[in-house]
Amino acid sequence: MLARLRKAKENGEGGFTLIELLVVMIIIGILAAIAIPAFLNQRAKSQDSAAKADVSTLGKEIATYWVDGIVVPASTAVAQTTGRYTLTVAAGTSPVVQDAITAQDLGKISAGVVLDSQSYTSATVWCISVTNPNGDKAKKKGFKYSAAGGLEEGTCDGNVPV
Predict the structure, then answer these.
(1) Domain boundary assignment for the chain
(2) Which DSSP string corresponds to 55-115?
(3) pTM exceeds 0.85 for this model
(4) CB contact at 8 A, 106 and 130
(5) pLDDT tens-digit series, residues 71-96
């Protein structure tokens, strides 16, 4: 055994020294210290994207009802039920639709997104907003979609709690 070790040392074969191993560990530690905060920031941004996507979908669905000529009275409501958004509209006086819309499916609720507030006054004055407690911007301000401004940060002004 000793003869084999002597022969390996003479041929220049050897392992890493303790100093070399410590330097590599320090470099890996520095890289991890840089990467972990960046990773956590990306998670918060993805939560914001989920809130934006949800409120955009809801806003576009509401806008569709106005564009199609359906009279949407103040009793319109978007709700979160069983993991999905639903739309309920009271019967209107529109020549297009006389019947009420009950729990029409508007899509799946993204993880963590909470329906914040909504208000419907007319085709040019309506707003719906969401928040996400796991997001960065969505946690503090939320996102809203309105007839006047489209997708924006913030909550509906003069909001009507749901």
Answers:
(1) 13-72+110-153
(2) HHHHHHHHHHHHHTT----TT-EEEEETTEEEEEE-----SS--S-EEEEEEEEPPTT-EE
(3) no
(4) no
(5) 555 466 778 778 888 887 776 655 55
